[in-house]
Amino acid sequence: MAYKSRRQTFIDNTPSIAKIQAWFRMIIARRNYLSRLQYFRDHKNEIVKIQSLLRASKARDDYKTLVGSENPPLTVIRKFVYLLDQSDLDFQEELEVARLRGEVVTKIRGNQQLEKDLNLMDIKIGLLVKNRITLEDVISHRTKLNKKKGGEMQVLNNIDNQGIKSLSKERRKTLETYQQLFYLLQTKPSYLAKLIFQMPQNKSTKFMDTVIFTLYNYASNQREEYLLLKLFKTALEEEIKSKVDQVQDIVTGNPTVIKMVVNFNRGARGQNTLRQLLAPVVKEIMDDKSLIINTNPVEVYKAWVNQLETQTGEASNLPYDVTTEQALTYPEVQNKLEASMENLRRVTDKVLNSIISSLDLLPYGLRYIAKVLKNSIHEKFPDATEDELLKIVGNLLYYRYMNPTIVAPDGFDIIDMTAGGQINSDQRRNLGSVAKVLQHAASNKLFEGENEHLSSTNNYLSETYQKFRKYFKEACDVPEPEEKFNMDKYTDVVTVSKPVIYISIEEIISTHSLLLEHREAIAPEKHDLLNELLELLGEVPNVESFLGEGAIDPNDPNKANTLSQLSKIEISLSLTSKYDLGDGETIDSQRLMIKTKKLIIDVIRNQPGSTLTEILETPATTQQETDHATDMVSRAIKDSKTPEEMQQMVEDAQLPIEQKKRKIQRNLRTLEQMGLVSSKNKYQDILNEIAKDIRNQRVYRKLRKAELAKLQQTLKALNEKATFYEEQINYYDTYIKTCLDNLKRKNSRRSIKVDGKGEPKGMRRAKPVKYSAAKLHEKGVLLGIDDLQTNQFKNILFDITSTEDVGIFDVKSKFLGVEMEKVQLNIQDLLEMQYEGVAVMKMFDKVKVNVNLLIYLLNKKFYGK
C-alpha cells in the first residue's frame, strides 16, 4: 500500500521530479565541467604546448606533402601561397644586394686601376733612382695617382641628361638594344666562347679581364656566378675540342680558359679563400727566424766556407768555385743538407695538411671547372688513365691556383705587408722550397737528374702524391650549377629585379666592334638573334655619341685625352630579353604559364575548393569577391611604395574573381594545346608548378641572405686592399717629399743670378740643340734615313728644343736650310719604350734612331745628366 501511494505521488508530481532530476544532472555536469575547466586552467601551458605541437605536426605534414608529393593537392597548396608574397624585408634585401653588387664591382675596377698606376709609379721611381727622368715627371704621375686614391671613378654629371640615357626616343631605343645585346651575351655563352678564340691571345686576355668579368659583375651574385660558370664550361670544352691534341697539352701549354678561371678565382672574390687556406701556415713559416732551408749543395758549401773563414779569421784553403758533385763530397755539406731536408719535410707537411683539411674552402666554381676539365679530357682521350686525369686536375688546383701564392704571398695579398715592407731572401727561399716539393708531389714527379741529391725525399713525394690524389678526386665531386644554385633557363622570368651591369663606354664600344668584326664566325645564321640586334644597332658609335652633344668642347686642344678619360666612365645597363611578354598567340609558353599561375594564386586565396576545375566552375560568392577586392587594394598600396625597378609584373590584378577565372580557363586551353597541362588530371601540372615556386621562394630567400653576407665580406676585403694601396701611395708621397726637400737644400746652396727682366737664370728654358744628321749618325743616335744615302746626311740639320711642358721636346728637320717637318718627343714615351725593350724607333716616318742613345743625348743636353 505504501509502495502504491509513493508511486502515485511520483506520478502526480512527474513534472516536478523531472525538473529536480534535470537540476541534479545539471549540477553534476556543471561540477564536472568546472572541475575539467579548472584542470585546463591549472595546465594551461601544457595544453597550449600540445595544441602548438599538433598544429606544427599538421603543418609539417602539409609541408612534407607540398615538398615530397609528386602531385600535391590544391588544399595544401592554398595554405602556403602566402609564401610567394614579397614582404618589405624582401624588397629591402633586394635593394641592399643591388647596392652592394654595384659597390663591389666599382671597388674591384677602382682597385685594378689603382694597382696599375702604382706599378707604373714603381717603374717611374725606379727610373728616378737611376737618374733617368726628372723629379717633375714623377710628381706629375703622383698628382694623377692621388686623384684616384681610394678607387674613386670619374662620374660625368650630365650623362643621364644628354648621353645614351637621355629622354629621346632614338637614344632610348639604342639603350634598350644594348641592354638586350648584353643580356643575350650573358645568357648564351656560346657567343662569347667562340669570340674568345677568334681573337689573338694577347687581345683576348685583355677582353676577358675587363669586358667579360664586367658583363658578369665579377660573379657578385648567385645568378651571375651561375652564368659565368656556364661560359667557362662552354669555352673550356670548345678549347679542348679544337686546340688540345695530346693529354699533356693542358699541362705544358697555357690554355686561355684555364688562365681566365685561375685569375678570376685568385681575384677579389677568391682572395679570402686563399687567405683562409694558406695565410696561417705561410705566416708561421715566415715568422720562424730559425728556419733555414737550402737544398742547393753549392750554396750550402759556399755558406759553410764563408762561416768557417769568418769564425777563424784565416783563409780556409778550400776551393770557392765547386760543382754540385764536389760540394756533396764534404760531410759538413751533407749534414747541413740533411738538416734542411728534415726541416723541409716538416714544414711541407704543415702546408699539405692545411690544404687537404680545407677542401670545403676551395671555391665551388674552381672545383666545378676541375670536374669539367677532367670529364672533357676523358671524353676526348678515353684511353687516358685515372692517374693522368688527376694529374691534370692537380695542375689546375695546386700548380696554377695555389703554388704561386705560396712562392709569392706578398704578390697575391695572402699576407698583410706594410707599405715599403718586403719578404727577405731566406723567407723567399724557404717558401720556394716548400712549393717545389708540393709541385713535384702533386704531379707525382720524383727528383732525378740535376736534382739527384734530393732523391732521399722520393718516398716522401710518393706518399704525398697519394694524399693529393685523394684530394683531387674529392675536389671534382661537386653538383652541377643548376642544382647548386637552384637555377634554370627560366629563372630570370620569376626574379624580382632585372639584372644590372656596370660597364664603361669604352667596353661597350669595344664589344660592339668585336662582335661586328667576327659576326660570321660566332653567328653564321642570318636570322640569328645576335645578328638581328647588331643590325638594329648599326655602326659602332664613338664616345661623343654616348655622352651627347656639348659634352666635349670641339675647340679643346686636349680633346683626344679628354675623350680617352671620358670613355672610362661607367653606365648601368638593366639587362632585358629581346622578346618580352606579349598578347594573344605570340605569348611565349613559359611566360604564359607564369601569368596563369599568378591569376590562379589570386583566385585560390579567396575561393576554396578541392580541385582547380571545381573552383573555376563554381561561381564566387559576394563575400569572396569583397575579400578579393580588399586583397588587391592592399597589393596596389604595397606596389606603389616599391621602387620602380623592383616591381613585379602584376597584370590584370584589379579584375574581379569571375573575370580572372574566365581568363584562367582561356589560358589553360592554350597551354593544353601546347602540351604543358592536361584537363584529364584537372590541370594538376600547373598546380605542381605553383608548389615548385613556393619551395624555390624559400631557397631563394636563403640564398639571398647568404649572398648579402658574401658581398659584405668581399667589400670588406676590397676596402682593406684599397687601404693598403692608400698606405702605399702615402709611402710614395713621403719618398717624393724627401726628394723635394733634398732638391731644395741642394738648390739653396747655389747663387741664382737674376737677369734684367727679373727672371732667375736657373728658370730659363734650355737653349736649342742643333745637330747635323751626319753628327748624330757618328754618335750612333741616328741609324739611317729611308731613301737617303749616308753621304747626304751632312745636308740635313735637326733642331731640338725643350718646350714649356716638362719632358716634351720639339724636333725640326731642315734640308739644305729649308725647314721640312716637325715632331714632338715625350721623354716618358721614350723611357717606356726603353723599359719595354724597344731599341729602335722612327721619327718623321723615315728616320731610324737608337732609343737608348737618344735618351742619353736629351738627358745630357737638357738635364745635365
Protein model, in words:
The protein has 865 residues and is mostly helical. Among the domains are: 52 residues; 183 residues, GTPase Activation - p120GAP, domain 1 (Orthogonal Bundle); 117 residues, no CATH class; 100 residues, no CATH class. It is built from 35 helices and nine strands. A four-stranded antiparallel beta sheet has the order 3-5-6-7. Strands 4-9-8 form a three-stranded antiparallel beta sheet. Helix 11 packs antiparallel against helix 13. GO terms for molecular function: actin filament binding; calmodulin binding; GTPase activator activity. Pfam families: IQ, RasGAP, RasGAP_C. One of its GO terms (biological process) is mitotic actomyosin contractile ring assembly actin filament organization. This is IQ motif containing GTPase activating protein 2.
List keywords for this structure.
mainly alpha, GTPase Activation - p120GAP, domain 1, three-stranded antiparallel β-sheet, 9 strands, IQ motif containing GTPase activating protein 2, calmodulin binding, Rho_GTPase_activation_prot, RasGAP_C, RasGAP_dom
Topology diagram in text:
Elements (H helix, E strand, L loop, with lengths): L1 H11 L1 H29 L1 H25 L5 H7 L7 H42 L5 H13 L11 H4 L6 H19 L1 H8 L4 H15 L6 H22 L5 H4 L3 H10 L5 H17 L9 H16 L11 H4 L3 H26 L7 H17 L5 H22 L17 H18 L15 H18 L5 H5 L14 E5 H13 L1 H4 L6 H9 L5 H5 L11 H8 L3 E5 L14 H18 L5 H6 L4 H20 L15 H17 L10 H65 L20 E4 H7 L2 E4 L10 E7 L5 E8 L2 E9 H9 L4 E4 L3 E4 H13 L2
Antiparallel strand pairs: 1-2, 3-5, 4-9, 5-6, 6-7, 8-9
Helix pairs in contact: 3-4, 5-6, 5-32, 6-32, 8-25, 9-11, 11-13, 11-18, 14-17, 15-17, 17-20, 18-19, 19-20, 19-21, 20-21, 28-30, 28-31, 34-35
